[in-house]
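Reproducibility note. Readers wishing to regenerate the assembly model reported in the main text can use the exact inputs given here. Chain order matters: entities are listed in the order in which they were concatenated for prediction.
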Amino acid sequence: MKNMTVIPTTSSHIKHKTDLLALTLPELQQWFVERGEPAFRAKQVFGWLYQRLSTDFAEMTNLPQTLRAQLAGEACIGPMVVRSELHSKDDRTRKILLELADGKLIESVLMLYPPSSESGPRATVCVSTQAGCAFGCTFCATGQMGFDRHLSAGEIVAQVLYFARELRSAPWTAAGLPGSKPIDHVTNIVLMGMGEPLHNYDNVLRALRILNSPQGFNLGARHMTVSTVGLVPAIRKLIREPLQVNLAISLHAPTDELRGQTMPINRKYPLGELLAACKEYIAATRRQVTFEYVLLAGVNDTPQHAHQLGELLAPLQQLAHVNCIPVNATSADYRPPGPEAIRAFRDILFEHGVSNSVRAERGDDIAAACGQLRTRFEKNNRNPIGMQGL
Ligand code: SAH
Ligand code: SF4
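Running the prediction on these inputs yields the following C-alpha cells for the assembly.
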C-alpha cells in the first residue's frame, strides 16, 4: 500500500506547455501539423498515451529522437502530483488526493467490484470535474467548500489514466475469490467526484470524447455516467450530443419544499422542470435514468417521503431507477438511517413499481464521500494523511 506518489513535474515549468491529455485526436493532428510534422504522429502519440499509458516522451521510441526532445520541451502529460493515496482495508476502494499545477486539490476514487452473475469484474473511477462546487448542497462536503475553478479536460482525463496505470502494473483480484480473473483496466467512469459536471460542460464533454476515442482509451459511452444536480438547460444540451452517456440525477427529495432546503438549485430548476427534462432524455434515448437519493435520517427518509417519491417517479415506469445512498457523515449534522428504515423506504418504492437499489457503503475508513479527504487534508495543514487505522 502506498501513501504518496510524485509524478515528476513542477508547477513552474509546465505553465507554458501544452497538456496533451486535453487534446482530441484531430486537435493533436493539428498541433503536429502546425509544427511541421506529419499528422500521423498524432495517432502514434495517442497510442502511447492511451494504450501504452506512457508518462514519458522518452519511451515513445517510434518517434524520432529530435521530436521526442521537442515534445519534452513543449508538451506535458497530465501534470499533477498525487499528495496522498489511501486504500480501504478490503482494498476495494482507493482514493487519491491530487494537487493540480496551481496548488488546487481534488479527489478521485477507484472502486473495484468482484465478478457477479450479471457481469465480470469492474473497475470504476469516480472522477472530479471541478475544484470545489458552486451549488452548496447542505449534506455535501464539496458543496460546503465553495467553488474554486473548473478542471480542464486534461485534468479530468489524467484522473482516469492514473488508475488505469495502477491497474495495468498491478492487476486486482478480489480477496477470497481464488481463480477469478484479475482486472487490469478501467471498465467504467462516473462523474461523481468533486464538482458539478454540467456546470463545466465543454471541458467535461471534451474529456469524455477523448476517453471514448477508438484510437485511444476506447471507453464506450455506455460505460460513462454523468451525475448532475439538475441543471435543466445543460441536460437538454446533453440529450442532443452524439455521445450517449448514462444520466444520473441527484434528486434527494420528493417535494420542491424539501429539495429547496437541502439543494439550493431547486429554487432555480424545480422538480417539475427537472422531471420534464428527464422525460425528454428518456424519449430521445430510450435509456434508463438513475435517480440518486441520499438518505438523511429524519429529513427525507420517512414512509411519507417514500410514497411521494414513488408517486413522482411511477409515471417513468421501468425507465427510472432509484439508487438509495445512506449519507456519508460530513461535518454537517446528518446521519444515515438504520437498515430497517432503509428497507421500509425501498419496499414502499417497490409498491409503486419503482425499481431501486441501495448503494453498499464502502470506503468509510478512507473518508470516501466526495470532498471529505480534501477537508481532512486541509484541516491537517496540508500534511499528507497517514495510513493509520487503514
Ligand atoms: N455534482 C454532481 C456530481 C458530484 S456529487 C451531483 O451532485 O450529482 C456525486 C453524488 O454524491 C451526488 O448524488 C451527491 O448528491 C452525492 N453526495 C454528496 N454528498 C454526499 C454525502 N455526504 N453522502 C453520500 N452521498 C453524497
Ligand atoms: Fe456540488 Fe454535487 Fe456536492 Fe451538490 S452534491 S454541492 S452539486 S458536488
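We highlight two features of this model. The chain has twelve helices and 14 strands. Residues 133, 135-137, 140, 142-143, 195-196, 229, 250 surround iron/sulfur cluster (ligand 2) (CB under 6 Å).
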